[in-house]
């Protein structure tokens, strides 16, 4: 016999107790939690430009107008710069961006291609010196369909990788544990930049 909402039977296997989980926020138990509330800004598109083609709204155009510490810029070159990813895939995730607001790799001029390549190589050396990763993912997501969050301003990803870093958290929980503050990572990399 199914129990009704007014059923006053004792809790047990056929009558489980259902409690509102919101009342347990912050209550210690045996579950380990990694809170990543900063990811909600990315998920909700908080810092995404309304018009991706407007370089006034573009975070990669606005970054160089701010201080290195405030914008998380690690190094400024002649035609490109290196900045920490505000929503990193892994600790130490860097982006190499041209100053010029261009979307496609084929739009880069020769000086931009050379400096982006050289800054990427230097970024790998610096990350190896500071963070000792086992490898890297390098790449550019060209267009929204390819996964570019800011498709209107080209940027090269330099993502350090360690053995076992792709555990259940990002795969199942869509959460990444980043064990160091972005400002601290920026300072370490800026200090090690040749």
UniProtKB/TrEMBL annotation:
- Record the organism: Brachybacterium tyrofermentans
| HIT domain residues | 60-168
Taxonomically, what lineage is the organism?
Bacteria, Bacillati, Actinomycetota, Actinomycetes, Micrococcales
Q: Where is this motif: Histidine triad motif?
A: 153-157
Q: Could you tell me where the Polar residues compositional bias lies?
A: 1-12
Query: Which SUPFAM superfamilies does the protein's record reference?
Result: HIT-like (SSF54197)
The coiled-coil segments of this chain are none
| Presence of keyword Nucleotide-binding | yes
Tell me which Pfam families the record gives: HIT
**Protein name, per record:** HIT family protein
Signal sequence bounds: none
Which InterPro entries does the entry link to?
AP-4-A_phosphorylase (IPR052908), FHIT (IPR039383), HIT-like (IPR011146), HIT-like_sf (IPR036265)
**Region of interest: Disordered:** 1-31
Alphabetically sorted, this entry's keywords are: Nucleotide-binding
